[in-house]
Amino acid sequence: MRPLFHPAIEDIRPEAILYALSDPERVAIFTQLVAGCGVTCSALAYLGERIIPKSSLSNHFKVLRESGLIRSERQGVEMRNQSRCAELDERFPGLIGAILTAYGQRPGQPKAD
Amino acid sequence: MRPLFHPAIEDIRPEAILYALSDPERVAIFTQLVAGCGVTCSALAYLGERIIPKSSLSNHFKVLRESGLIRSERQGVEMRNQSRCAELDERFPGLIGAILTAYGQRPGQPKAD
Fold first, then answer.
1. Do B95 and A98 touch (CB under 8 A)?
2. C-alpha A13: how far from chain center
């Protein structure tokens, strides 16, 4: 099984973060991870009333991971994911908060449907 | 000549802003507009030591304009562009500042080469 790629904090580029968070589905996934650490992929197959196909979900996680927004860890057949918010906020102060606020969501307070 | 499309401030979507600013060339152009209002297209053909082809430049301006980041106005054969920072900062507090800071650039202080 291929190892999962995670950029070192100093290699994270703002353009990759902005690109990753320019997709509202990825923002919704990321917001759930910010709200509650360690969510598994399968627990995230529903976003509101929409079902995200497993292949799209897995691609969303890859983009989030490779941009440096989340950390993923294989646990048996599951993948556990958590946000890298704390690290990111040191490197890019205020960036993630401003983005989530702009989407009408604050860290820890997913948008009510 | 087709009229230029500018979204109303309330129609500006965070995903369009993030996508527009996920390209470092567009960020460099936008930063110059934030620094000095009313720059013309042709004055922006150089970014540092790189020359941006006219066709790419015109596409960058279109993406910036249609995402709501800049306002463009035809003046004879020239196009004058200015950032919509003030409006944007009311709608999405802190967002543009955090993004430009993340790129190592602050509004009004373009990165020194």
1. yes
2. 15
Cα separation of B16 and B63, whole Å?
Answer: 9
All residue ranges of chain A with pLDDT < 50 are 37-43, 106-113
**What would the two tokens of residue B98 be?**
């955090």
Question: What residue segments make up the domains of chain A, in order of their start?
Answer: 13-102
Confidence category of residue B2, pLDDT binned at 50, 70, 90: confident
Please write the tens of the pLDDT for every residue from B41-95. Answer: 455 555 566 778 888 888 999 999 999 999 999 988 888 899 999 999 999 999 9
DSSP structure string for A51-97: EPPHHHHHHHHHHHHHHTSEEEEEETTEEEEEE-HHHHHHHSTTHHH
Mean pLDDT, rounded, of chain A: 83
Q: Are residues A95 and B98, on separate chains, in Cβ contact within 8 Å? A: yes
- A-contacting residues in B 15-44 (Cβ below 8 Å): 15-19, 21-24, 27
In this prediction the pTM is 0.82
Name the CATH topology of B13-102: Arc Repressor Mutant, subunit A (1.10.10)
Interface-testing mutation among B18, B88, B101, with chain A (most A C-beta atoms within 10 A):
B18
| Neighboring chain A residues of B19 at a CB cutoff of 8 Å | 18-19, 22
